[in-house]
Design goal:
Radius of gyration: 18 Å
Distance between the termini: 46 Å
CATH architecture of one domain: 3-Layer(aba) Sandwich
Shape: globular
Strand order of the largest sheet: 3-5-4-8-9
CATH class of one domain: Alpha Beta
Order of helices and strands: HEEEHEHHEEEHEHEHH
Helix content: 40-55%
Number of strands: 9
Largest sheet: 5 strands, mixed
Structural class: alpha/beta
CATH superfamily of one domain: Glutaredoxin
Length: 190
C-alpha cells in the first residue's frame, strides 16, 4: 500500500505536463492527441466544420523524428492551460510535411501533404497555422492564414498566440509581438 501511495504522490508531483497524458505516436511517426481531428483533409470542409462548432481552424504540420514537435507534445501541449485552450477553441488538423495523403487546399487544388507543404513554403516543423472563419475560394492556405508560427515555443508564446487568434487580434492595431509583450508584463514576467 505504501508503494502505491508513493507512486500516486510521485505522479501528482510530476507536474502539469502529465495532466492530460502524453501524446501517443501514430503509425506515421507523428504524435497523436485527443484534440486532433481525423478528417478527409479537404480544408474547405474542415473550415466549415470548425465554424459549425464555433472553433477556429488550426493546421499543425509535423514530421517523423522532429525533436521540436516532440518538445511541443511533451512540454507545452499537455499543460492544462494550453491543452484546454486548444480543446475549447480550435479544430486541429494535422499534416505530415513529407506525407502522401491527399489534401484539398482552400483554392480547390488537390495535392499530397508534401506537395502542399512545398506550395505553402513550409520549411520547419512543427508549424502551426491559424485561419479566419472565411477563406475565399481563390486563395491558398498560405495566403489565408492569419498567423503562422514555425518551430517550438514555450507556453507563454504559444498560449498568447492562441489567445490573440481567438480574440482576432490580427484585425486590430496591436501586433502579436506587442500583445505578447503586454501579456508578459501583465503576468509580471517582463
Amino acid at each position: 500500500m505504501r508503494k502505491i501511495l508513493a507512486m500516486i504522490a510521485a505522479l501528482m508531483l510530476a507536474g502539469p505536463a502529465l495532466a492530460h497524458g502524453p501524446a501517443v505516436m501514430g503509425d506515421d511517426g507523428l504524435h497523436k492527441t485527443d484534440w486532433m481531428r481525423d478528417t478527409f483533409k479537404d480544408l474547405r470542409e474542415d473550415l466549415a466544420e470548425a465554424n459549425t462548432e464555433g472553433k477556429r481552424l488550426m493546421i499543425i504540420v509535423e514530421q517523423r523524428g522532429c525533436i521540436y514537435c516532440n518538445k511541443m507534445h511533451e512540454e507545452v501541449f499537455p499543460l492544462p492551460e494550453i491543452h484546454d485552450m486548444i480543446h475549447e477553441n480550435f479544430f486541429v488538423v494535422q499534416l505530415n510535411m513529407f506525407g502522401d495523403v491527399e489534401v484539398t487546399d482552400f483554392d480547390g487544388e488537390v495535392l499530397s501533404e508534401k506537395e502542399l507543404a512545398r506550395k505553402w513554403g513550409l520549411l520547419f516543423t512543427p508549424t502551426m497555422m491559424f485561419f479566419p472563419e472565411s477563406v475565399p475560394e481563390t486563395v491558398s492556405g498560405a495566403q489565408a492564414a492569419v498567423a503562422t508560427i514555425p518551430g517550438a515555443f514555450g507556453k507563454y508564446t504559444t498560449g498568447h498566440l492562441m489567445e490573440w487568434v481567438v480574440q482576432k487580434g490580427y484585425e486590430g492595431d496591436e501586433s502579436f509581438q506587442k500583445y505578447h509583450a503586454r501579456r508578459l508584463t501583465e503576468r509580471g514576467l517582463n
